[in-house]
Amino acid sequence: MHPNPLFRSDDRALLETLIDEVGFGMVFAATPDGPRVAHTPLIYRDEVVQFHLARGNALTRWLAGETALVTVNGPDGYISPRWYTDRATVPTWDYVALELEGPVRRLDGEALDALLYALIDRHEGRLGGARWSADETPPDMWRTLHAGIVGFALEVKAWRPTIKLSQKKSPADREAIAEGLEASGRAALAHLMRTIAA
Predict the structure, then answer these.
(1) By C-alpha distance, which of 139, 129, 192 is closest to 164?
(2) Where would I find the H helices in 58-132?
(3) What's the average pLDDT block by block, 10 residues per block, for the chain (198 residues)?
(4) 117 vs 137: CA distance, rounded Å
(5) Per-residue pLDDT tens for 61-109?
């Protein structure tokens, strides 16, 4: 989390939307083998983030019963001083990120199935057109793949967001930054700058 309180947010709905919209994050934990990270799809419900890892992942055997950190990264981008009224400054980076910390428990087989079906349903629904169904996977293949992963749930005890969107700049500079971001292919970050930190 950025140390400047200007870049924090208590807007829980916004933070939950970030998790839902991005749908992917990183899980970090200390293990006897050293710090490890895993990249995984996420689902958030009722103060809990669920995810699954490959059984052979370096974190899988150490997570249950431990405290871990989940991060979700939103849009980000380089901010050029060329977009400022006063160019006598330095570049920076604007970004949206969220850290979630809490204890982790392992999911049983039924809960893991529910997580997988929820992930499939959410992401197939976003694609449009004819949806794929998990029922199209042969049962033997599903069982084999299911045996190769482990599900987890992190109970969120701490929320640490960073919403750094040039809040220290004037409204005119912020609009110029948003225009520069759009022109450089960072429309999502520009949109957030105009709507969140306005």
Answers:
(1) 192
(2) 60-63, 109-127
(3) 88 94 96 96 97 96 97 97 93 96 97 95 92 92 94 98 94 95 96 84
(4) 12
(5) 999 999 999 999 999 999 999 999 999 999 999 999 999 999 999 999 9
CA 178 to each of CA 15, 86, 174, 186: distance values in angstroms, whole numbers, following the listed order: 21, 16, 6, 9
Say which amino acid occupies 81: P
Can you tell me the distance from the alpha carbon of 131 to that of 168, in angstroms, rounded to the nearest whole number? 45
Phi, psi of 154 (to 5 degrees): -105, 120
Domains of the chain and CATH, by start:
5-167 (2.30.110.10)
Q: Among candidates 19, 26, 15, 23, which has minimal Cα distance to 71?
A: 26
